[in-house]
Amino acid sequence: MFLVPEACRECIVRDIMVVDQVEYDEAKKVFEQIRISNRQGMAIFAMPFRIGVFLSITGAVASLPLVFDRAAVEWFNDMFVTAEMPPEHDLETVLEVGSAAWAWMEPVLGTVSFYLLCMQFARAQLQNLGLRPYFSWQQDRRADRLVRLYPRYHAIFLRNYSKCDPLADPHELVE
User: Among 88, 108, 145, 161, which one has the highest count of C-beta atoms within 10 angstroms of its own C-beta?
Assistant: First the structure.
């Protein structure tokens, strides 16, 4: 379902006018309180997505030196793997270092890659079905909270507005 934030706002403002028996400008002030209430806790709701982005970028950046940089490979081997490293003359180029590191990095990178591939496939199938379980749960929870905070106003209008308000940055409503 595609919702237009300005249309959702207008529905709420009109509902406030009817319920509270106030003029448009006064209803917009009440809506501003609803908008602020809806944004509360948004950083916490967005945190799992931000952590996912951070971890994926960190893993991508760290994987290159952990396979091809001699100092990083030797450090990681000393700290976590303790495998026998090839002689000095077999570690002169980045490809030779990569070949040495690949013996113990391949299972890790291969497993992580296969895991991510399977998760991407599962996500694609969920999207084909029109499902976003975690995100939908978050949206519903946030919308339910807004409806509880403002029970006087029409629940469908409040829910629609809450669902069209993005997690990352608030939508700048156009007059």
Answer: 161
